[in-house]
Specification:
Elements (H helix, E strand, L loop, with lengths): L2 E5 L2 E4 L4 E8 L7 E7 L6 E6 L5 E3 L7 E6 L4 E6 L8 E8 L3 E3 L3 E6 L1
Parallel strand pairs: 2-11
Antiparallel strand pairs: 1-3, 3-8, 4-5, 4-9, 5-6, 7-8, 9-10, 9-11
Length: 114
C-alpha cells in the first residue's frame, strides 16, 4: 500500500519560512518523480515543484527563487523549503509521487498572513 504523509504546514507571517516534508512508503522511492502541488478553494490544483529521480528540478514561475525542493532517498522523503512566503502562497499543499502510477498525499494547510 502506497502512503504519502505530508507534514510541516502551518500559519506563518508574510516573509516567513516553512519546510514541508513528505514521507513515502510502498513505492520504489529512488526511481519516483516527486512533486509538490497546491490548491485553493475554487481553483485547480497547480504544480509548485518537481524533482526527478536524477537531477532534474522544475519550479512554477511564481515560486522560483523562493522555494527549494529536495529529496533524501535514504529516508524516502521529499522536502519543500519555502522562504519569503507571500499571502498568495496560502493553499493546501499536496505531495505527489509518480512511479508507474500517480499517488497523492492527504495535503497540509499552509496559511500566510499579511
Amino acid at each position: 500500500q502506497v502512503r504519502l504523509v505530508e507534514s510541516g504546514g502551518g500559519l506563518v507571517q508574510a516573509g516567513g519560512s516553512l519546510r514541508l516534508s513528505c514521507a513515502a512508503s510502498g513505492i520504489i522511492f529512488r526511481s519516483a518523480v516527486m512533486g509538490w502541488y497546491r490548491q485553493v478553494p475554487g481553483k485547480q490544483r497547480e504544480l509548485v515543484a518537481l524533482i526527478g529521480s536524477g537531477t532534474s528540478i522544475n519550479y512554477a514561475t511564481s515560486v522560483k527563487g523562493r522555494f527549494t525542493i529536495s529529496r533524501d532517498n535514504a529516508k524516502n522523503t521529499v522536502f519543500l523549503q519555502m522562504n519569503s512566503l507571500k499571502p498568495e502562497d496560502t493553499a493546501v499543499y499536496y505531495c505527489n509521487a509518480i512511479n508507474g502510477r500517480s499517488y497523492w498525499g492527504q495535503g497540509t494547510q499552509v496559511t500566510v498572513s499579511s
